[in-house]
């Protein structure tokens, strides 16, 4: 780790007026600094800022500095969000990691984290060895010839499914709100640009619009080991079931794409259909549309469909059990 200056701004205004890299839980930034992937000269500890709180009076509002474990345990949080959080990292990390930091965590691609190898995210124009190299854990959706790294956040998948928004503050541009689905950017020709966060901006809040039927929701995560592991495939699903039919649905997936991936075709295929396995299987068969598997990760196409189906079936069982 290289030397750096650490300061702790007392107010949001002071933080936005300062030049530096924001530090909250540090569970991503410190790791990257140890690897020399991130080399900030000035780090701003923002843990003292008033960016906490969980408010359920208007949908769900979560302060960016709320810790993952606290949000997961809050009774007003939709199940899909709670389950995504509880299946992330370890209990110790969840106690430290912030909601805003989780949404901004960097990919776990081994080439990105190894400064001895090329990586277009780390050094634009240097190449993407994963395209032809070891790519079992890489993306099959939203990829380009310049990057095939998966997005790491479980929470972001759940939030994208529920049409969440992030509030961003800047000393120069004030406050703006961006849909989380639009906040993340597919790599295209510029994989180093991962999101719509502008220089000096800070995530201050996450807002999930009120959706009462999202109480019927779940998050299914498939991984190589039971805990403390990133998703090979995951699915966030919420269903509105009326008279044994699907009135509405929200579906997003992770572990298989370069950004949290909303499956609008699957949602449309579910609406109006009987809440039975046959309908779910037909809808889940559309989950991998547009997939571009690489040499080692073709299995993700089938796994993705099965993950979505498993989430739908699990959720239906939960719904019937609650009646």
TrEMBL record:
Pfam families: CO_deh_flav_C, FAD_binding_5
Record key words, sorted: Oxidoreductase
InterPro entries in UniProt: CO_DH_flav_C, CO_DH_flav_C_dom_sf, Diverse_Substr_Oxidored, FAD-bd_PCMH, FAD-bd_PCMH-like_sf, FAD-bd_PCMH_sub1, FAD-bd_PCMH_sub2, Mopterin_DH_FAD-bd
Gene3D superfamilies associated with the record: 3.30.465.10, CO dehydrogenase flavoprotein, C-terminal domain, Uridine Diphospho-n-acetylenolpyruvylglucosamine Reductase, domain 2
All copies of domain FAD-binding PCMH-type, residue ranges: 1-213
SUPFAM superfamilies per the UniProt record, alphabetical: CO dehydrogenase flavoprotein C-terminal domain-like, FAD-binding/transporter-associated domain-like
Protein name: FAD binding domain-containing protein
Native organism: Amycolatopsis pigmentata
